[in-house]
Design brief:
heterodimer; A: mainly alpha; 11 helices; B: alpha/beta; Rossmann fold; Alpha-Beta Plaits; 6-stranded mixed β-sheet; 4-stranded antiparallel β-sheet; 35% helix; binds adenosine-5'-diphosphate; binds magnesium ion
């Protein structure tokens, strides 16, 4: 327990002094603001590029704007989290930073647990705040079809939960791979492969991507079309339904397995300096 | 205090330790001396419980390392070769973090941090971030972190190697103070002067094999044969019988007017030798006792393999 609280404190200090909160906050905040603005400007941009393009196809509502943000942040947010957190365990063991704590009796479960809880909470809070900010600007910029604060908060909560599972994936990869970059890329590949799995019948209810899908659906169906885009939303709008309980249970099992393997891996791997890549 | 028996450890390519055996008695500074790549760090990491080993036994304070992993935490303090800290913390914050990990109460933790910053001379610098520290300052902070929980056995891996002469002296002085405070210190180094300055016992390791392990005094006795160099005022034809027949003389080698007498035992031998010399008809131009240093033993042992 003393390891857990000591590392919780340490991660807070590290994140604020290395501006990790600031980087993630600025990243999610920037896209929360810029995505609806881009969408608002879209008609005039397309107008100037393709004069005579039917304007009726480019009328968006607030729900569509929020769903557009979810689609974008799913891709971009995964990158941000993978690259900010990829060294979370790899750096510690590669640079021998665990030697003192471990030789003073630190427990690996405490170290891993503190990192998961800290980054899980930080990322969830930032994602939630970003999504609510986006909802606010979407309603301001696109009148009509306001999903309501409750639906927006529910959607934001599901999105936050999704990114919390990404923290688990990145931390897991960071324990598995000695090189931080390899860990980051592996976590990204895993996250980008999930939508393909989710497109299989019933799989949507057992992979974390189902949370993104649910975040989308909980807003209702938006209207609007962008040439060449919106395919995801079309798929999300119809098709198989997600069973919330099944999804929650499936994710709980996955997280438990990943966390156990992470701790086991950190316990068995050599953390002494000079014990190189393997 | 520390008992290492037939300890072996192999990496994919190298046999880093081969049946390494030595004992460290409580309250002494034990030097682990060997050239680079001899296996010192490997042995340290094993004793600190950080890496596994293939065979042999390590006993610390009567507890088997394999069976008492958790029980030994806190008994052993370890200063790695290049200690790694969190550069964004100050030295004081880092020590407090170590105290947090080991579950000290906040008040006890603060008191201990300040006490140790003072011990290692970092009271002022302790408020600055570690990222800007010199090697010597990091080494001293490492020492403070290693002894934070008052370990009974302190492992120091090449604590002086990267330091300038002043930094080295500071560390050696600290080591002597740790011993005086009742700690047992196991110190690895490739620098002989360090061993001569502070160690009570020494094990010499080469390519994973211990080639000698004994107290400094006995090592000197056993491996350093005192030699008396005598220069006569003229060349001799043969080694005088008076000298070879002396009971404390091992052998003698003559080269013109120069005679090297290898002694079995220097103190009584010296008197006997002087008597023998007085009875010769050749005059003695110079007489000197050569007391070889640890360096001679080291070079001899390491090169004999
Ligand atoms: N993690 C490792 N993997 C492979 N070989 C290693 C590893 N660590 C050390 N060695 C090898 O083991 C031998 C002993 O190394 P080491 O214990 O570091 O020596 P020293 O500390 O005396 O310089 C060397 O030949 C070194 O190359
Ligand atoms: Mg070494």
């Amino acid at each position: 327990m003393s390891t857990f609280t000591a590392y919780l404190k340490k991660e807070q200090m590290e994140s604020s002094r290395q501006s990790k909160y600031l980087i993630l906050g600025a990243f999610f905040g920037f896209f929360a603001l810029s995505t609806p603005i881009m969408l608002k400007l879209m008609p005039s941009i397309i107008e100037s590029q393709m004069p005579g393009f039917p304007k009726e196809l480019m009328e968006f509502d607030a729900v569509y704007s929020v769903q557009n943000y979810i689609k974008n942040i799913y891709q971009l947010g995964n990158m941000a989290i993978a690259f900010v957190l990829m060294g979370v365990l790899a750096d510690e063991r590669l640079q021998g930073k665990l030697v003192y704590p471990v030789s003073q009796g630190a427990s690996m479960a405490g170290v891993v647990g503190a990192k998961l809880v800290h980054y899980g909470a930080a990322v969830s809070a930032i994602v939630f705040a970003g999504a609510m900010l986006n909802y606010y600007y979407s309603v301001v910029l696109f009148p009509g079809s306001d999903p309501g604060v409750a639906a927006a908060a529910r959607s934001a909560g599901l999105l936050a939960a999704y990114f919390a599972t990404r923290v688990v994936i990145v931390v897991f990869a960071s324990a598995l791979f000695a090189k931080p970059l390899a860990a980051g890329l592996a976590a990204l590949v895993a996250s980008y492969v999930e939508p393909i799995m989710a497109s299989l019948p019933r799989w949507k209810s057992i992979v974390a991507y189902g949370l993104v899908d649910a975040a989308n659906k909980s807003l209702g169906t938006g209207t609007g079309t962008i040439p060449g885009a919106g395919a995801m939303m079309a798929a999300g709008g119809k098709g198989s339904e997600i069973n919330g309980w099944v999804l929650a249970a499936a994710l709980a099992v996955q997280v438990a397995v990943l966390v156990s393997v992470t701790i086991w891996r950190m316990k068995s791997v050599e953390i002494a300096p000079g014990a190189g890549a393997q | 205090m520390l008992n290492v028996e037939a300890l072996s450890k192999s990496y994919a390519q190298t046999r880093a330790l081969r049946e390494v055996t030595f004992q460290v008695t409580s309250g002494q500074v034990f030097g682990f001396l060997g050239p680079n790549g001899a296996g010192k760090t490997t042995a340290m990491n094993i004793i600190a419980g950080l890496i596994e080993f293939d065979s042999g036994t390590v006993t610390i304070d009567g507890m088997d390392l394999r069976r008492n992993r958790s029980g030994l935490r806190g008994v052993v303090g370890y200063l790695p070769e290049s200690p790694a800290f969190y550069g964004y913390m100050t030295a004081r914050e880092y020590l407090l973090f170590i105290g947090d990990v080991s579950g000290l109460t906040p008040a006890a933790n603060r008191a201990r941090a300040d006490e140790l910053l003072d011990t290692v001379g970092l009271t002022e610098a302790g408020r600055r971030r570690i990222g800007g520290y010199s090697r010597g300052m990091k080494q001293r902070l490492g020492m403070a972190a290693a002894i934070y929980n008052r370990p009974r056995l302190l492992l120091l891996d090449e604590p002086t190697s990267a330091l300038d002469p002043q930094g080295r002296l500071d560390v050696i002085t600290l080591v002597a103070r740790m011993r005086d405070a009742g700690m047992t210190v196991f110190l690895s180094t490739h620098i002989l002067a360090d061993v001569e300055r502070v160690c009570d016992s020494v094990a010499i390791i080469k390519d994973g094999v211990v080639v000698a392990a004994d107290s400094m005094a006995r090592l000197r006795e056993r491996y350093i044969q005192p030699v008396v160099d005598i220069v006569f005022d003229r060349a001799l034809e043969s080694v005088p019988a008076e000298i070879t027949s002396a009971s404390h003389v091992d052998r003698a080698a003559l080269d013109g007017d120069r005679l090297s007498v290898f002694m079995r035992d220097l103190e009584p031998g010296k008197r006997e030798l002087l008597h023998a010399l007085a009875s010769l008809d050749a005059g003695v131009a110079s007489y000197s006792v050569r007391q070889p240093s640890l360096e001679d033993i080291f070079v001899r042992l390491v090169n004999s393999r």
